[in-house]
Design goal:
Blueprint: H1 16-36, H2 47-52, H3 57-60, H4 86-98, H5 103-116
Helix pairs in contact: 4-5
Length: 117
């Protein structure tokens, strides 16, 4: 997997789903490294601009194309107030307990998965 707007960032996976999950991590890590070095983070182009870029024609030939979201892990947590149906909250808590997670960890994991999928 390559990122046309993020030179030097690459990733891979055995399956498409795994490649996308790994791509999210690779992109986040690459941006974190750029920021840590004080380098600018290139702005992303929209999908149509990438697909119509003649300089990428050879790279696109025979390739599958997708959009990878940038999820910036900031290394700190923030308290939020979220409303939910009581029955859903009970199901969230039960599933989190089964997995040995806190409610917050479970919700963050579920949100990350939904953003990536």
């Amino acid at each position: 997997m390559s990122f046309p707007d993020m030179p030097g960032c690459i990733s891979a996976g055995v399956t498409i789903d795994e490649a996308v999950r790994n791509g999210v991590e690779a992109l986040s890590g690459h941006v974190r490294m750029l920021e840590g070095d004080g380098d600018p983070v290139p702005p992303p182009r929209d999908f149509d601009a990438i697909m119509s870029d003649p300089e990428l024609a050879e790279d696109r030939d025979g390739a599958m194309t997708t959009v990878i979201p940038l999820i910036r892990d900031r290394g700190s947590t923030t308290r939020i107030n979220v409303s939910s149906d009581l029955g859903l909250l009970e199901a969230i808590d039960a599933t989190a307990r089964e997995r040995g997670q806190t409610r917050s960890a479970f919700l963050a994991s579920a949100a990350r998965k939904d953003i990536v999928d």
